[in-house]
């Protein structure tokens, strides 16, 4: 014999019930007990009927009417017209009874546990009867078992404990007395020794199935639901969750105990006691294998089998100096909790014995606090212990796997993955079976935590990056284009999913809504109707989204934006900046950001601050990391200045050449930052700092070439001033040309000192053949003493800068 159970969504409506009956009709189920839940959502509605009636809310009547309508419509959709009357009158009779009960509750203004169980039992009574009539109408022979008679429990209404001896006996008798081989029975419900209806706890129909299976020594129990088996994580939260093909009873128990709702935890024990295999199958994809739970641990595959989580958790901490070395404290704590029937989900005790910390369901907090404070009244008065500390809004995340025992380092991997994503761990416990490591985290972090751990343990080759882009001008726009172009390639070849999850301009800001990403092909249209930009609003939004592997990308040249990095880094959000302001601000700020990045274990990257897309900072970092020492850096670092001096020979006015550079997008918004040398000073300072030197802008000698008048007034005034001083620029050019030299604006760093200025470059210099807007950097190091390490190429332009930013974004995924 088999026992198969169909859950609420499997029997939610006539269409689904037909699918269920198609399954039952297969030959392997000729000798079977079918257990069914109430139609999906009905138990919740019946509970609200009971509580509304008790609270004098007449609304309950309408809810009942709707429920009746739904059941009758289901009957009408299933049964041929001339077979309907018996079934409809049975449904109507149930609703008459329900009405009477509820009227009593309404009049009394009180809902006892016993009456509540009576009310909710109708969900399963109705569904099982309807399916029973339907199967009969198809000509199959089937018997209906009243689970209230078959399953015997104590009188703990809402959560009754099964009397297995009595239950086994009655089930055996019922089956033996019948000529049927196919039975249907309501799940969830039972009765106590007085004959009052009881229930087995929410989700209890799974348990009903394994109780029947144990009684008849079934060859298998099958739990049919709306997902394909037990999965590596709740598929509603983790898009890449996958079916666990095979697991042990113990693992399944741990997973369900820690929140894998797909199977009600007590279900496992009766089946395990008799070595009955449990299958979890999908009603909506019956041909998929699903999960097999049996007595064998899996031989191969992942060390971790699954990840589950429970919400609505509170931590209770009992602390005090009076606890040290005195035995019996924990016993008294647990006794106090047990007396109030508070279920302890997780326990930790610090090795100093100063505190014991337990996790319980939030609903139990009030009675737990009263009971514990009462039990320690004397110690509280003498201040040996402190009043029980309560923290709410927490969740537990658990990693489960039989094989954890033999694989050290799992906890480390777990905590570092959580830490990298800024998820704070409030308490940790590892079961002595070493089959589970669980951690208490904030409820706000739980969804992210589940995804982070799923990625760390099951998707080792698959990573998701959530990118928030601030600035959608020249470079930002190009960056979004490049991301769009590469998304499919990255996913396919590097298993890297780069999602744009926020875009802000100076006027508007756009966020993704639940779980989606921004459609990067239509971001401009989407931005039109987006919210008004507020920088703090954008930052708060990113923090509130709390997505794993979040990256803030600053493609502005704005000082205020540079001011928010610290907030983001301290929430473990990576920062990729094309904006140079932060890295070239006062040294203490630069250092602060670097140390925040280290402290929160998250990258702060700004490769494009020097040489746009050229790998300048990365190369310097690699040299230093590998133990080299920088002796000297010489560089042409301004694409703008290089462009200007490559194009200026006196035939066209200097101002016109500068204008061209600006029009082509090679200059800062105010070109004086380039022409005056400030931009180059910032860059050489950033390189000096990255090489380990404490340097400020004032420490750099600037041998500038612009006449003082050029620095007065607006950008427009600057162009006028350049025109006025054309002779000055011509003279600079002629002086160089007379020596067969080119003009280059060179930055230099040596012996802790930096300088920038215009130089005459002879034809044998590395700098001579530097065309267009190219940059060049020469690193003279201990390992490259005479022939320097050279990095050379286009050092400005939106496209190359965007690709440098893109490369930094992808660097964020490196562990
Ligand atoms: P039923 O009504 O069939 O009893 P439930 O809603 O009780 O179904 O359980 C199935 C649901 O459990 C799935 O839809 C899924 O969202 C949730 N779930 C949570 N954790 C897991 C997991 N690890 N594997 C599969 N499903 C899970
Ligand atoms: N109908 C009950 C509930 O919703 C039992 C079950 O579905 O397993 O909790
Ligand atoms: Mg269920």
Report on this model:
This protein is α/β, with parallel strands linked by helices and 815 residues long. The protein folds into 4 domains: 2-226, Acetylglutamate kinase-like (Carbamate kinase); 306-444, VC0802-like, CATH 3.30.2130; 463-608, NAD(P)-binding Rossmann-like Domain (Rossmann fold, 3-Layer(aba) Sandwich); 616-796, 2-Layer Sandwich (Dihydrodipicolinate Reductase, domain 2), CATH 3.30.360. The chain contains 29 helices and 29 strands. It has an 8-stranded mixed beta sheet, sandwiched between helices. It has a 7-stranded mixed beta sheet with strand order 20-19-18-17-21-22-23, sandwiched between helices. Strands 12-13-11-14-16-15 form a 6-stranded antiparallel beta sheet. Helix 1 (14-24) links the parallel strand 1 and strand 2 (32-36). The longest helix is centred in the N-terminal third of the chain and has 25 residues, at 84-108. The radius of gyration is 36 Å and the shape is elongated. The protein binds adenosine-5'-diphosphate (ADP), aspartic acid (ASP) and magnesium ion. Aspartic acid binds next to helix 8. Adenosine-5'-diphosphate is lined by residues 7-10, 37, 203, 225-227, 230-231, 233-236, 260-262, 306, 308.
User: Could you tell me how far the N terminus lies from the C terminus, measured between alpha carbons in angstroms?
Assistant: 52 Å
How much of the sequence lies in strands comes to: 15-25%
CATH topology of the largest domain: Carbamate kinase
CATH class of the largest domain, anyone? Alpha Beta
**Count of helix runs:** 29
User: What's the rounded overall pLDDT mean?
Assistant: 93
Principal-axis shape equals elongated
What is the helix fraction of residues, given as a range? 40-55%
Query: Could you say which structural class the secondary elements and strand pairing correspond to?
Result: alpha/beta
Rounded to an integer in angstroms, the radius of gyration calculated over CA atoms is 36 Å
**What's the CATH H-level superfamily name of the largest domain?**
Acetylglutamate kinase-like
Name every ligand kind in the structure. adenosine-5'-diphosphate, aspartic acid, magnesium ion
Q: Which spans have pLDDT < 50 for at least 5 consecutive residues?
A: none
In the sheet with the most strands, the strands line up as: 3-4-2-1-7-9-10-8
Number of domains: 4
Q: How many strand elements?
A: 29
Largest sheet: 8 strands, mixed
